[in-house]
Amino acid sequence: MDETSPLFRFFSQFKIALKNASIYSIDHPQTHQSVELLRDHLVHLAERIDPLHFVFTEHSLRFDDIVYSGHSLIEEIAVFFHTRKVKRLTIDGATSLTDLLAFFSLFIHSPQIMAEKGGLKTLIESIHASGFRIDELDYSSLLRGEGREIDNMREFILGRDLDARETEHIDRIAGRFSDILDEHSLDEWLSNPTLMANLSKIHESLKNRESPLLRPFSKSFVKSVLQSRTIPTKEELERLRSVLSTLNSTDFAGALWEEITENREFDALSLRVFSKLAEDNDPESISKGFIQCAERTSTTSLPPNHRNRILDLLEKMPSPLLSEVYRSTLSSLFQDIDIHEEQAFDRNIWESNFQIILLNYLQAVQNPENIGLIVNNLLLQWPAITKRGDLSYLKNMSITLRNKKRRHGSSENIDQLEGRMQEHIENQVLLGNPAIESLSSYFDPKKSRFSSNYILKKIFEGGIVNPAICELFFQSYPDDVFYFQLNAERELPDSPLLQQLIQALGQLESENAFHILRELYSQADITLQTFILQSLTYSNEPVDIFLTDALQKGPLPVRTAAFPVYAVDTVRRKKAAAILLSVPAFLGLKNRRLLENIRLLADFQVDEARARVFRLSRRRLPWNSGLRREARKTLEKLQ
Fold first, then answer.
1. Is residue 334 scored above 60 in pLDDT?
2. Burial 239-265 (b: 16+ CB within 10 A, else e)
3. CA gap 632, 639 in Å, rounded
4. Radius of gyration (Cα) for the chain, nearest Å?
5. Could you tell me the pTM of the whole model?
6. I need a labelling partner for 393 at 20 to 30 A (CA). Which of 4, 249, 363, 570 fits?
7. Per-residue pLDDT, 179
8. d(CA 606, CA 495)
9. Residue 90 gets which letter from DSSP?
10. What's the rounded Cα separation, in Å, for the pair 584 and 602?
11. What is the largest CA-CA distance in the chain?
12. HEC profile of 253-265
């Protein structure tokens, strides 16, 4: 599409009006001005085509019998209406500014609330905006479409809020879930709030109905996470647990057996991911289930590729970070087989075993002279250790070296080994290795051998963004934080790199990281402000003043994002309720804000707010009538 054409300018202004209307009230000057400008473009376009017909699909729209797609502007508008179940929108060219403002005022509602109120078509009828006509999308027929059934189901759970009562659709999705998962990375699942909410609703519906599809559904998700080969963060694990909560040890054991024997990519990293997912279950119970799976297939009759994969995993994953239960389980599969019969001359396996023996011996030995001999041998093995790429082994080596230094003091060869460790881990961080979660697991904070400018270029020009690389910069160059902040501010108002950076900074327990997030917040628009607040969910930094200000002064989306970050326990929930409901009551001038805050507390089911809400329900004077009604409704919800 020609970006200088009148049609493109119309779509551009249309998007701006939609965004403003969904964030601000229709009375806000910014919203009013954007809709007024859109009215000018509409009149101009209607001179050639009247009325204007727009047909929306998942990622495209049709206007004047031409399909437009492949442009972010078009896709955003298409997705906006598709998630609100709009198939066709017709706008009369003679539509008045009043009707246009009334139409856009409806988009302050989220898709879910809009659906609860009967959909956009019903809402348009309720405001008597005659210049607009809506044809709604029939998802039932969409899901039953031929040829693209899986694609349609995928778009169904990606593009709209699923109603847990839609059992027919839920069962169809759950029955084909393993096929749907094939097309999405773990990052895509975890970064899409609508998608994760829909997965929880599917899980809840299947669980409540005791559906036989429940365990296959959850098990498919386990296998998808394992195949992603990405270790979930603490935040991501919390999101995953709602989907995996009904799986028992037998289910996890079956998933592990299938992945080890069927997935060629299953390796040490995959097993670490598995142990993270299954950490709420008893490893011994999982192991027993795993053995039972193996007993159904004689180990000696396993296909050679399956046997070799398990043997390889056994030989390469005996580090202390792998539960000894899992290692013993794998070993027991081959207790009647001479492992070395096939692999006696495999140099890599012998080297791996030798490295493990050295580290285990280093943990046990107390004589300083023997410690020195073992460390020298580890230095000789260093090229082979790094080639093997076992980060768990390196992490355990680091712990062992620190213990030896604490008990017996440092030495030249220990310092040399730690220096090589730091150099290797820093290289991995700067290459973007996602498996490195924290530098302190591998070496004590020291100044990097890379310059601050080099690390900044890696982040802001090379796109290597994760908590570890930010940690490397902050611990090496605390006096250069200003330059980090300056580079981050250049990414404003928003960019994919900035979003990754905010997520990474939110995971660090660092005053420098929090300082940068606070500065970005002060310059961000509402959408980015909410994203920054959400990134602080697991932060241990002192963010109270920051969050209190957001609750007191922020617009509704900001308050909604700030509340769950602030209200992490009963005491803080009570404080948050007090902040939200302590709005000055002079002549009811701020009753609208109070109404928003009451609804927010109702949505979060904040029982601790009941006493304050009750007091609001007793306020007298005529201008408080709406406030009293809303407070009473909320009290009913909090019963």
1. no
2. bbeebbeebebbbbbbbbbbbbbeeee
3. 11
4. 29
5. 0.45
6. 249
7. 64
8. 35
9. E
10. 20
11. 92
12. HHHHHHHHHHCCC
512 within 8 A of 478, measured Cβ to Cβ: yes
pLDDT tens column, 412-454: 899 999 999 999 999 999 988 888 878 888 887 678 888 999 9
Q: In the 3-class helix/strand/coil scheme, how is 327-370 assigned residue by residue?
A: HHHHHHCCCCCCHHHHHCCCHHHHHHHHHHHHHHHHHHCCCHHH
Q: Is 55 helix (H, G, I), strand (E, B) or coil?
A: strand
Q: Is the pLDDT of residue 288 over 70?
A: no
**What average pLDDT score do residues 321-327 get?**
47
CA–CA gap between residue 23 and residue 28 (Å, rounded): 10
| End-to-end CA separation in angstroms for the chain | 55
CA 422 to chain centre: 30
Encoded tokens for 258: 């299938």
Contacts of 344 by beta carbon, 8 Å cutoff, 6+ apart: none
- For the chain, what's the residue count? 639
- Residue 454's pLDDT is 92
From CA 277, how far away is CA 272, in angstroms rounded?
A: 9
156/473: higher pLDDT? 473
Distances (CA, A) of 238 to 118, 280, 485, 532: 33, 12, 30, 19
pLDDT value, residue 143: 42
Residues 64-115 pLDDT 10s:
778 787 787 888 888 888 777 788 888 888 888 888 888 888 888 777 677 7
For residue 146, the 8-state DSSP code is S
Query: What span, in angstroms and rounded, lies between the C-alpha atoms of 45 and 37?
Result: 13
| Average pLDDT score, the chain | 77
* Neighbour-count burial of 463, counting CB atoms closer than 10 A to its CB (0-12 exposed, 13-18 middle, 19+ buried): exposed
